[in-house]
Amino acid sequence: IRSNPSTALLEQTFDTFSFAGDEFAYECPKVIVCDGCRIIEDDGNDNDEQSKDEKKQEEDGTNNSNDNNTNAAAPPPKITRKYANVKQTLRNGIATTDQAKNYEEFKIRLKTLCEKANNPSSLENTSKNKKSPFQNTQVVELEERHGYGFALRHALHHNVTTPYVCVIQHDRTFMRPTPITEVVHAMINDTQQQIKYVGINMRSNLMYHDIFSGKYGRRAVNEFRKMILYPRELCIGGNVYGANGSSVQNMVAPRDEKRRRNMEAYKESYRGSHQCITYEEWLKKKQKYSQSSSAEEQQQQKSKSQKDGYHQLSLTPTLFWYDNTHIVNTAHYRDFIFHPQYKMVARGGFVEDKLSPCMVRSCERLGLKEGHGKFGCYLLDDHSGVVFTGHLDGGSFMSAKAHYSKGDK
């Protein structure tokens, strides 16, 4: 990325982990996977047959590269393929000689950062007297270019040992307090094993119910609404979640007035969305106390709910596997999504690119509920109209030093 060799982007991302809880930020084991890259060679010689063979190998995942090779010492291979712009070239793991050197320097700095965080006796940690989110973090270097999907697959097979995994891209940040622990508990206590993937919402899928309603007919929408889950583990007290909860109040402040106005406008749009209206209808049904309850019992239950500030979060089914921050059953990811026989993820690409159409075809073949059940994908929503995660855009990110040298104050 453009900010290499600076580690500012990752530091900014890791600094937001505290929004997911201290245990998540400082105690959970973390793995940073550094993909390999290829050097661009500007000699104008392009072998079409070789490019076709490489593309076929990437799609089938049959590239002869050793998936276990890490900590490479050999220089990256040279390539001749061209892309439209620098950002797209880097996105495909292709770098100039200088960019590759910056990347190597970045990895050295990153490992040093993690080593200092993992060493409690270091002078830096002692002087600051502050925990680092880079504690319990290991850096894994891949010898060759794998792409996002296969780099993730490598980590799941060789580095992840927990039953659940939270996948976070390098430029995806938490914007406000997020109930990661409660989501994991909901997945653990799901006796029917419906919940296999929980995506933490972002701007593009905050109103996913409306996205689905715009694509499919009324019959499918009615079935979709019945599939929305309201786990008891996500009924959280303390006035934390919801439109007036402390989570929204403690959100990262917009950088300027324009962004603040956009956020307020988006909250207003959310209130009129199917996503919000469906929740309010469910809430009204939930608040109708049974006829067998006495008036005194009803009043006690209502008073306790208001006093403790409980708010029910929901899990909205999705037919799109968002690569944005998500929590997944590790075995589901490793043994089903990345099963070599199914070929649902292409080498060199993102998981969502090829997997999401597979989910849609599954529903077309088996029906919405059964087809969706194979993948078990849901999106977290606290019905505040505010996103849990944001995007720093690593492709365009520049460190403060780079901004200064460019003349930006």
SSE inventory with pairings:
Blueprint (H helix, E strand, L loop, with lengths): L7 H8 L6 H6 L2 E5 L3 E3 L7 H13 L17 E2 L6 H6 L2 E2 L1 H22 L4 H6 L8 E5 L5 H12 L5 E4 L4 E3 L5 H9 L8 E4 L7 H8 L2 H9 L8 E2 L9 H4 L7 H15 L2 H13 L8 H14 L2 E2 L1 E4 L8 E4 H8 L13 H16 L1 H6 L3 E5 L7 E3 L8 H7 L3
Parallel strand pairs: 1-5, 2-3, 2-4, 8-13
Antiparallel strand pairs: 6-12, 7-14, 8-12, 9-10, 11-13
In the predicted model, the low-confidence regions spanning at least 5 consecutive residues are 43-53, 400-409
Net shape: globular
Q: Describe the largest sheet.
A: 5 strands, mixed
For the CA atoms, what is the radius of gyration? Answer: 23 Å
Order of strands across the biggest sheet? 6-12-8-13-11
What class would the helix/strand composition place it in?
alpha/beta
Textual characterization of the structure:
With 409 residues, this protein is α/β, with parallel strands linked by helices. A 5-stranded mixed β-sheet has the order 6-12-8-13-11. It has helices at residues 8-15, 22-27, 48-60, 86-91, 97-118, 123-128, 147-158, 180-188, 208-215, 218-226, 246-249, 257-271, 274-286, 295-308, 330-337, 351-366, 368-373, 400-406; strands at residues 30-34, 38-40, 78-79, 94-95, 137-141, 164-167, 172-174, 197-200, 235-236, 311-312, 314-317, 326-329, 377-381, 389-391. Helix 3 (48-60) links the parallel strand 2 (38-40) and strand 3. It starts with 7 loop residues before the first helix and ends with a helix.
